[in-house]
User: Which sequence fits this backbone?
């Protein structure tokens, strides 16, 4: 695995832009995921797996109903290898403990879309 400051693939860059935009970017976010994509996330308090674009967007929509105020996301590090792109990030919002939280998103891409996304807190 190599650490790099390389330019993010467009799918991943657009994912983070849509995350920051929230609900208004619903359609843009949906278009980033393959129809049969898988999303593994910890946001409900325990790890949950969502299969299929509709299920993924459905779970994201729950978060869009109560968005973090003044939220921004910084990309801290990008690592590539084994067909995956791993992105360490920091999310800033006054609603988070200490004003920030961090994690890693591991993306798998095919055909210009996200086929698998695993999010973990650090």
Assistant:
């Amino acid at each position: 695995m190599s650490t790099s400051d390389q330019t993010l693939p467009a799918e991943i860059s657009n994912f983070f832009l849509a995350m920051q935009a929230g609900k208004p970017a619903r359609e843009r976010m949906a278009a980033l995921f393959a129809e049969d994509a898988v999303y593994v996330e910890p946001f409900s308090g325990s790890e949950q797996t969502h299969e299929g674009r509709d299920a993924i967007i459905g779970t994201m929509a729950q978060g869009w109903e109560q968005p973090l105020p003044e939220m921004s996301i910084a990309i801290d590090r990008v690592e590539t290898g084994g067909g995956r792109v791993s992105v360490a990030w920091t999310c800033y919002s006054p609603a988070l403990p200490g004003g920030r939280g961090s994690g890693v998103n591991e993306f798998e891409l095919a055909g210009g879309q996200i086929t698998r996304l695993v999010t973990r807190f650090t």
Summary: The chain has a mean pLDDT of 93.
